[in-house]
Amino acid sequence: MTAAQVNAIEAGRSAHYDVTIRLAGIYKYFSGVPALRDVNVEFLPGEVHAILGENGAGKSTLMNIIAGTLQASGGEITFEDQRIQQMTPEVAASLGIAICFQHPAILEDLSVLENVCVALPPSVFSDRPAQDVVQDMLDAVGLQLPLRMRADRMTVAQKHLLEIGKALALKPKVLILDEPTASLDQEASDMLFGRIRNAVATGTSVIYITHRLAELRQIADRVTVLRDGRVRGAARVGDISDADLVGLIVGRTLEAAFPPKSKDVAEETSLSIAGLSGRGLRNISFDVPRGQIIGIAGVAGNGQTGLMRTLAGLEPAQGAITLRGRMLKQQGLLREAAFMPSDRHREGVASGLTVRENATFSALDKLAVNGIMSRAKEHEKVKSIFDELAVKAPSMEAPILSLSGGNQQKVVMSRALLSEPGLIIADEPTQGVDVGARFEIYRILRDVSDAGTPVIVNSSDAVELEGLCDKVVVMSRGHVVETLTGDEVTEERIVAAAVKAETHDVESGSKAVAAQSEGLRHFLQSDNSPIVPLALVTLLLGLYVNGQNDNFLSISNIYNIFLLATALGFIALGQTIALLMGGIDLSVGPLAGFLVVVASFFVNDGMSTPVVLVGLMLMFAGAFVTGAVNGLLIRYANFTPIAATLAMYIAIQGLSFLLRDNPDGYISSTVTDWINWQWGPFPVAFLVLVAVTLCGEYALRRTRLGWRLRAVGSNEESARRMGIRIDLTYISGYIACSLLTGLGAVMLMTQIGVGDPRQGVSYTLSSITAVVLGGTSLTGGRGTFIGTVLGAVLLTEILSAVTFLSLTQTYQYLFQGILIVVAALIYAAVRRRAAS
Transmembrane region positions (predicted)? Predict the structure, then answer.
């Protein structure tokens, strides 16, 4: 550190408080089990304070408490001598606390630009266009990404860098970095350390969680060690040895970092790869002798991950792969290989399953007796491998996501070993794993290799490759540029071989995928891409039916189609909001019918204008209450969206029959004429629907409200970490859904002209069908209001076409079903092509 930086730090300290954050007596319990116990620690301005500890020691829990995403069960948090009564993400952000989570809070259904805009406060964009601010932020962390690119196409490293960029953009007083370099290459890590030093020089307090002792020596001033939720020691980094740190971390001494390598080169070749070529790979060849571990190295993004996925059978390729004399094709590799992916959240763990189920679902045939699953055998095997890997879990039946990241990684390895594979493909196997467990993983990989199972390891840590591997294959731009064996396998030789390759900059984890055109590819990826085929089908169907019956495209029939589509369109817009949040609203159909029944008591011929207005107000009041109750049941009574809205479906339908057991209460013809006012071939109400749709689409793409709505459906946990008020967003969304249904009910009222409790129910299924045809995802996060309205028009057109073609009603449902299947196939094919 330069003298100028030291002076800047001292100046920062003199201008600020002596202690930025003080934690006193912090406790945290999960279901009665302590995760943190009596933690006392201080974080000072202008320094990097490292937090070390095994997986499950409480590091991430402590950081989440500081960031406000978790509430402490006891203790006190003081920020700049001010006691914080309750730390929340909003409070933390207002105090200047920024956090980069171990698992980046990136919303995959939003674009890069939208991810940044929804995460950062409006003040960041107050004086410059958002695109310029975001582009500068990306440049600062070495990312070259199209701003319109959807985040699901980003690599893990790019997501980490984007998370870091968001945090640095806030110019925080406290910067929390949880395993920031876990997926970064050396170039990106060096860049990050430079940014950290710059932040510290301005007086920022940096809290740095890591498992890598080498990083500790590079960047940290002080260190605190946690074990089993307690502080086990704290010191200046220069005053404590690595051996003492490891002893504090694991509670015991470790004799050696790596197990002994294979001394003699076996004549037998366990695995042979010859001329392997595929996506991003060119003519890869190497052998794996029995008892040896092969390492894959290179600057991140030069084909290493592609090679690992190909060897695991997940990617097609040409060439010869021979395992113990047997040629294996892609299907054979899928059966024989156990794959440990680097991105455990996307590919490593099944989030809906328990710890036990995640450990065994690839090995069920090995745990069966006479074809029947043996629970006793399963528990015995899982317990044995968990003990060997020191997996820390509340129980085998605990949700997998309740484990720390490192323990999730151990479960992934447990599954690989339990499946008794023919070869093991380990992509960054120790990423996010603590010191003690890392040594256990090295030992187990060595034991497996010694037993004759080929082991191939991809790692961005050259020291790890040097200590673990007998042979290292260095890659650049999808080619093998050097193969190191025996004494040649050193950190210096590995790094030199990767760096000296002239093609190493083709796609680094710190750079990004090469910038691609902003035109057709991005449109095909967008939520609005279904609009084009949907509009084309609507037009072609109209032309075909008109060819069979000249009256189909008459002004009167076009008017009728649009008029009928308006009621469905408003209701489907509401359904779109529910689906965008990852929910569903089954009550929209009965609600529309119920609101018409309510109106039938007030909106009648002979009633005064005030009475008619009261009736309309009661309609929307009923819609508001229904939406609020749906939202409250889901968020606070723990109902699933289907259960809550199905209960409302039944209740509202019952209320409709209580008010009117038969059709009665005829709607005022004057009101009907006003609402159904015609302008050319278009009902004015349909033009209002179009205007509402366009405004909604603008809000969905360009406003914080729309981003938050989609964020909740994309990934609720990530949205919560960003400080989005999930409950309020969800309840507001369901209220908006019901209010739009109220607008649909107004149109339905003029179409049926009477309060009939049996009407409206069919709109539940029709609205879902229109939304699905419009391209909105049933899993949340992705959708378009424009596509929904086009879907509503198409469904109404089909109904009219069936009548004009003199077909039975059966064909209406048949055509709808065929359309949904065809649309799903087209949308899936288009998005696959856009991603390629």
Answer: 558-579, 586-603, 609-629, 636-659, 679-700, 728-754, 760-778, 785-807, 813-830
pLDDT tens across 800-821, in order? 888 888 887 777 777 777 776 7
Are 649 and 749 in the same domain?
yes
Shared domain check, 129 and 188: yes
Number of domains in the chain: 3
The stretch 379-386 carries a mean pLDDT of 84
3-class secondary structure for 417-478?
Answer: HHCCCCEEEEECCCCCCCHHHHHHHHHHHHHHHHCCCCEEEECCCHHHHHHHCCEEEEEECC
> In the predicted model, what is the mean pLDDT of residues 232-241?
90
Instruction: Determine the average pLDDT of the residues in 758-775.
Output: 90
Residue-number span of the structural domain to which 581 is assigned: 520-835
515, part of any domain: no
Asked which of 466, 500, 534 is the last residue of a domain, the reply is 500
CATH code (residue 734):
1.10.3470
Element (H, E) at 690: helix 684-702
Q: Whole-angstrom Cα distance, residue 374 to residue 366?
A: 10
Residue 453 lies in a domain: yes
Rounded to the nearest 10°, the torsion over CA 653, 655, 658, 662 is -40
HSE, side-chain direction, 13 A CA sphere, residue 632:
7
pLDDT over threshold 50, residue 1: no
Tokens of 97: 């606390």
User: Confidence class of residue 830 from pLDDT cuts 50, 70 and 90?
Assistant: low
> Pairing state of beta strands 337-340 and 423-427?
parallel
Buried b (16+ CB within 10 A) or exposed e, 313-325: bbbebeeebebbe
* pLDDT at res. 256: 59
Q: What is the mean pLDDT of residues 439-467?
A: 87
The answer as to whether 673 is a domain residue is: yes
pTM, two decimal places: 0.75
Residue type, 476: S
Report the C-alpha gap between 303 and 358 in whole angstroms: 28
Rounded mean pLDDT of 601-608?
Answer: 90
Q: How far is CA 514 from CA 138, 161, 299, in A?
A: 14, 16, 15
